[in-house]
Amino acid sequence: MSRPQLLQLAIPLVQTYGFTRAALSHSVFRLPKPHSEQLSDSAVTALFGEGNDARKTLIDAWLEDARQHMRASPSPTIKAILTQRLKQNEPVLQFLPEAFALLASPTNGLPPLDPLPALKHAGSVADEACHIVGEHNIGLAWYSRRATLGAVYAAAELHQLNSPSTVYDFLESLLDSSGKVESALQDAGTFAGYIGRSWAGIIKSRGPF
Amino acid sequence: MFASNIARRACRTNRPFRHCRFNHNQPTPNQNQESSRATHFGFQTVPEEQKESLVKNVFDSVASSYDLMNDAMSLGIHRLWKDELVSLLKPGARGPQKCIDVAGGTGDIALRILDHARERYADRETAVDVVDINGEMLREGFKRFKKTMYHNTPQIAFQEANAQALPTERFPDNTYDLYTIAFGIRNCTSIPDVLKEAHRVLKPGGTFACLEFSRVNNPLLSTVYDQYSFSIIPLLGTILAGDRASYQYLVESIRNFPPQPEFAQMIVDAGFTTGGMFEGKGGAWRDLTFGVAAIHTGVKV
User: Fold this and answer.
1) Is residue B66 pLDDT above 70, yes or no?
2) How far is the alpha carbon of A33 from chain B, nearest alpha carbon, in Å?
3) pLDDT at B271 over 70
4) Under an 8 A CB cutoff, do B88 and A50 touch?
5) Alpha-carbon distance B161 to nearest alpha carbon in chain A (angstroms)
6) CA–CA–CA angle B39, B40, B44 (5° rounding)
7) Distance (Å, whole) CA B124 – CA B126
8) Please, which residues have CB within 8 angstroms of residue B209's CB and are 6 or more apart in sequence?
9) pLDDT tens-digit readout, B185-220
10) Do residues B277 and B250 lie in contact, with contact meaning Cβ atoms separated by under 8 Å?
11) How far is the C-alpha of A98 from the C-alpha of B57, rounded, in Å?
12) In chain A, what residues touch B273 (CB-CB under 8 Å)?
């Protein structure tokens, strides 16, 4: 029995116990040969880390598991995949704000808040979605596509934390408007390119001055 | 000089002189089958059977000044290391625990475990069995415990036994919640056997913790550390304990111990579940003082 396997067993327990060390220590009750008592504190520390580090390990494992479940979406479109991912949040919705706060809180005092885990989370969901759909982007488009999808997903998830019932419509409206924003940005980029080249031509034709 | 000191001390045991030749015309007895399995004793190679008695002799001679020498060699930091080990394990946090401290002759870890359980959690039912192969070290531990409130209580017991083969009547299977071994495992002849015995006596869900000297990975610090180890420590042994060779052995045995990832793999091979194969939080080990010492943990699942 290895550590990743124990984490897999602990994930369904999050609905009952939340993202806590209790969920980790009760995971041994779901072994093929269950233990008679839950894991001791020192065992949880030895396997997953001290104090809140164990909870962060569990949260990371849960997020990874939710990303795996994105593949089970009914149709391979971005909208369906992101909807599937938002559905994963529903059983544990009340524990999620604390989980994200824990990810953002620093281990040693400074910096006061760490934005990286949130960006990594949105980025990896967007990356997984693009991979499942099979999009081929090259160059800067790779980054801009993932950035837009990450921003869309993050906004939808925040909306879900406050008002879970309207989130799927909100996601749809966001995806439509982001499509419009992307094409508008592309047009603006092309137009700026034309202007730039015209100016370059004018300056060259003025000759040495 | 080192080898002859050890040989002289080894001859104190009551072994027959069957390997001596009294006449140069006599053929030498066949020594090949005995030295076929060799192990390291510091930087010397010795037959496996001899290592146990050689280590016994080392610890017989250092027993009375063991604590003083630890303070001098590590500049008192060994106390911080042992405190870190016990505060990591938090004995007594969820009720009384049965603990076994192996190679813990002088009782440092056992005392810290009992004090932690008593002071933090008001737990007076946690019990520690101190096991050591060396009777002299156990006597020192017993003497130290006489000065504490745990003497003559069921919380502490001393037993002379070999960590590689704990007697099954005294140490049945699946008995203990916590197994600790601090600065002892490198002196054992066969580390996998010690780990197997640890796995046997621990309950399912029990924790294994090993505090041991380890490799310093930073090259600059490791040079400084080597200089300190090979020059100053044997010198301190001569001055404070009158025994350079034993402390030379101690320093050499540290260099021969496997590095952190290898030892973590040996723990996994013995059947334990550990953290990830990296150092630090949630990892199979954590370095103390840049890797001079390391705590390896595992859980019997």
Assistant:
1) yes
2) 10
3) yes
4) yes
5) 26
6) 125
7) 6
8) A42, A46, B85, B88, B89, B178, B179, B180, B181, B295, B296, B297
9) 988 888 999 999 999 999 999 999 999 989 898 999
10) no
11) 58
12) 1-3, 6, 47
Cβ-defined contact of B207 to A42 (cutoff 8 Å) = yes
Residue B258: asked if its preceding bond is cis (omega within 30°), the reply is: no
Rounded to 5 degrees, what are φ and ψ at B45? -105, 125
* Closest by Cα among B115, B262, B271, B138 to B201: B271
B21-55 pLDDT, tens digit each = 445 544 444 444 444 677 777 787 888 778 778 87
Q: Which amino acid is at A110?
A: L
Contact B89 A57 (CB under 8 A): no
Rounded to a whole number of angstroms, the distance from the CA of B38 to the nearest CA of chain A is: 34
Q: Is the model's pLDDT at B300 over the cut of 80?
A: yes
Closest CA to A92 of A153, A10, A17: A17
**B32 three-state secondary structure:** coil
* Interchain contact B90–A (C-beta under 8 A): yes
pTM across the whole model: 0.80
Task: Name the nearest CA neighbour of B205 among A1, A19, A12, A10.
Answer: A1
Residue of B nearest to A57 (CA): B282
- B115, B109 Cβ separation under 8 angstroms: no
Q: What amino acid is encoded at A62 in this protein? A: W
Low-confidence ranges of chain A (pLDDT < 50): none
Kind and range of the H or E run holding A2: none
First to last CA, chain B: 48
Whole-angstrom distance, CA of residue A100 vs CA of residue A24: 18
Angstrom CA distances, A95 to A11, A15, A90, A102, B277, stand at 13, 8, 10, 11, 29
Cα separation, B66 vs B140, in Å, equals: 9
The β-bridge partners of B160 are B132
Q: Sheet containing B127-132: which strands, arranged edge to edge?
A: B156-160, B127-132, B98-102, B176-182, B202-213, B293-299, B283-288, B276-279
Q: Quick one: CA torsion of B132, B137, B140, B141, rounded to 10 degrees?
A: -20
B281, B286, B296, B300: which to substitute to probe chain A, counting the most A Cβ within 10 Å?
A: B281
pLDDT at A102: 92
Dihedral of CA B207/B195/A57/A19: which sign? negative
Question: End-to-end alpha-carbon separation of chain A, Å?
Answer: 78
Instruction: Count Cα atoms within 13 angstroms, Cβ side, for A166.
Output: 8
Residue B143 and residue B137: Cα distance in Å, rounded? Answer: 10
Report the C-alpha gap between B299 and B267 in whole angstroms: 10
